[in-house]
Amino acid sequence: MYIGVTLSTLIVAGTAAADWSGSVALEYRGFTQTPLDDEQHRHYFSVAAQPEYVYALPDSKDQLRFVPFVRVDQYDSERSHADIRELSWTQVGDSHEWRIGIGKVFWGVTESQHLVDIVNQTDLVENSDGEDKLGQPMVNLALIRDWGTVDLFVLPYFRERTFAGAEGRLRWQPRVDTEQAVYESSRGRDHVDYAARWAKSWSGIDLGLSYFSGTSRDPRLTLGSDAGGNLVLVPHYELIHQAGLDLAAVQGAWLWKLEAIYRSGIDPAYFASTAGFEYTLSGAFDSGVDLGLLAEYLYDDRGDDSPSPFQDDAFAGVRLAFNDAASSELLFGIVQDLTSQARMFNLEASRRLGDQWKLSVEARAVAAAPADDPVFPIRRDDYVQLELARYF
User: Could you write out the DSSP letters of every residue in 199-247?
Assistant: First the structure.
């Protein structure tokens, strides 16, 4: 928010200015159970940094944004990684906007998963919730009209998904060997992908229709072996086409949400959706706290053949916004598989400490997962995470 306000101020003023901001964070992850693999550990410490540089050109609406990221993990060599989250030039016109370089785009409205969000690859070693993304090379033209905004994307280079290394946790058994990644396209990472999205807002309704054609961000994992003859999982990246719809509608204290996709180019083609609501009680219990009640249903018509854990699942959650000076907030949710009876628990909470520090707590757990459930490999990876970040 601070950066956004700063940028707006610079653009309106029409003067050149540069601004550095960002954060440095110390993180601890403690796992409650002994690992499945002797190479893994119970306790992990890591340090991460994400500075951000913004330069606004003089007497124009052009901007240059640079957001590098680096993490050093105590044990997991794959989680120790660096990435350019953003390095882009943006030009804003009266009815259009160009963005060229490396960027991040988010599409989606639901809480439990983001089916339509497909432009950026998931940085899975950062967080198993899939919300951390790698920077994506792109050329993006946004056409802004009265009948809606159309975003057109050319994506000239593919980013592979990150997976935990041999000593990391929250990983498959056996581990994923990213060095052996296989592509359906003969051009591999150089295959050019395309995406487009139309979005329109009116009377409390936000509607988006999207289309993607290119290399799937979700690899299919197959058994293989590494150079030492050990079993590994090999990621296969297929060519797909995906049509998506996202809808959010506000009706008083109710926020209705829907995401749906139809993906083809793979066998079988399939339909998946997430639909639900969030009901907010402002000033609940005669306090200054806002209480949000969330519920969603997650569906995938592949059923038990889906590699996703969300084929026939129900999500219920509670969100607390304390509306205090420290911006304290908490989100707790449970996903219940209605077929296998597996359950996933998720807790996220944060609180600012003064003007420059923030303490975040995260906990995730899996229970009652049968051997054929997609979350079975992480059945002993319940953990609590503490992060202390300093912003500058």
Answer: EEEETTEEEEEEEEEEE-SSPEEEEEE-TTS-EEEEEEE-EEEEEEEEE
